[in-house]
Amino acid sequence: MPPAERAAVDLGGTFSASAIVGGTVTGHHLLHIDCYSQTKEELPTGKYIKSCPFSAGGRSWYIKYYPNGDRSSATEFISIYLQLDQSVAQPVKARLRFSLLDQAGESVPSHSRKTPTYDFFTASPAFGYREFIKRAWLEESKYLKDDRFTIRCSVIVTKELCAEERRPVVVPPSNLHRNLGDLLASGEGSDVTFQVLGETFKAHSCVLVAQSPVFKAEVLGAMKESINGSVIQVDDIDADVFRALLKFMYTDTLPDFQDTKKKEEAAMAQHLLVAADRYNLERLKLICEDRLCGHIDTASAASILALAEQHSCRGLKEACFRFLSSPSALNAVMTTDGFDHLTRSCPSVLKELMANIAACVSVDLEQER
């Protein structure tokens, strides 16, 4: 047996490890130009308007949009640049991709351009493209619709090299939501059944009761009346919408809409918003509001505004008002079937809309003076 003193030294030994790590992190920002004609008229060559600040790679940025070019040699073009919006001790290395998007939200290959890596620092110039889009080409293209178009800016930030401790025991993230999703998919242990327009969904009362006070009342009420398990009939929600609703309640996630057309995604968001309001799922309702804010266009603005008014969605309603504050957008929307529906179903919101437009016009006149 070794001496006691030697044993104590051995027991006190430690093991540790570290690694030098780097890599990149990417962020995206969509710049929606909702009133192209107005920006072209009011911002002469060399004048720009900034996007709202956004975060990418742990840094704050903004986009500079020049509708008539940033200098006299580029008056026929739209210029677009990215600016670092914070003070930094060390330069931030980043490369950029600016893309014109089509009506489905996809990049237009002829107008998707990637820069080399630049060093952004506190007083650095903005980087981007002086001749990004020729205005005459844009105005004749299908990408400018109802006086609107969208540019996506992708920022690929190079992370600083640093030492990172490698711990011998790595605790994985929680997989509770995945496990609950598997439970929903398998139907094991289910004690409540929903019949939704010909489709059957098995669920677990404990999950539904915990998530929604409306489900709590419906499920517990049905269980009291049934001895062999409860069956609840749902006739006013589409089966795909109800499936997405259950998935959200179990996993706090929505189905992946990457392969879904923009119009279909907007329709699903509208139906889910109605269902979320019915079952008092406030977080899901806000998620749907947020998604619909990105789908407001001439064809949908009136119907989305009616939806926002009927289901008390203040943020979505304000987004519709902002879109409709443009005279050209309003005139185009007034020719749609959705506007007829809005007129019939929500006459009070029309008065509010007109008052909002009048206020905007008054502010513009004051600024001109």
TrEMBL record:
PROSITE patterns: BTB, MATH
Pathway(s) where this gene product acts: Protein modification; protein ubiquitination
Annotated protein name in UniProt: BTB/POZ and MATH domain-containing protein 1
Domain MATH: 26-155
Sequence ranges assigned to domain BTB in this UniProt record: 190-258
Pfam family, one: MATH_2
Gene3D superfamilies: 1.25.40.420, Apoptosis, Tumor Necrosis Factor Receptor Associated Protein 2, Chain A, Potassium Channel Kv1.1, Chain A
Source organism superkingdom: Eukaryota
Family, similarity comment: Belongs to the Tdpoz family.
UniProt organism field: Urochloa decumbens
